[in-house]
Structures are given as C-alpha cells and as structure tokens.
Amino acid sequence: MSDPVIMPKPSKLRLAVLMLLVVYPFVTGILYIIMPLTEGWALWKRTALLAPIMVFSIVYGIAPLIQRHFSWFIMRLPRRKAA
C-alpha cells in the first residue's frame, strides 16, 4: 500500500498579497474610466455600477489567472520549469 500524498496548505497571506497587487491597479483604472462618465451621479449609483464590474472581473478573470500562474507560490511549492 502506498503512502498518501500530503498536499501543502495554501498560504492565505500570499494569495491576499497577490490579489492586492493585481486588484488595486485594476480598481484604480476602472475608477479613472467610470468617474468622468458618472460625474454628478450619487455615490450609491456609482457603486451600483462599479460593484458588479469589479466582482465579475475578479471572480471570472483575475482570481483564476492568479491561481493558474502563481499556484506554486500560493501553495509554497518549488516553481515549475517551463517545458
């Protein structure tokens, strides 16, 4: 009987740092685009426009890219060499 494979625990801190490094400039860029287009809007209306853009972009775009390209870093594994 073979020994079970023990997977390392992902580092939430490393994931949080990577997300911050990617999400902050993304949010800032979206704000630069949205602010002039929504000049004069109430804050709740701007937020109602911004929130779905941010959530769907992060869930379906940014987070999967980070997990795909940096899973080795998040999981504390040695970096794989490109084939």
TrEMBL record:
Keyword Transmembrane tagged: yes
Keywords: Membrane, Transmembrane, Transmembrane helix
Transmembrane segments: 15-35, 47-66
Name of the featured protein: DUF2842 domain-containing protein
Source organism of this protein record: Rhizobium daejeonense
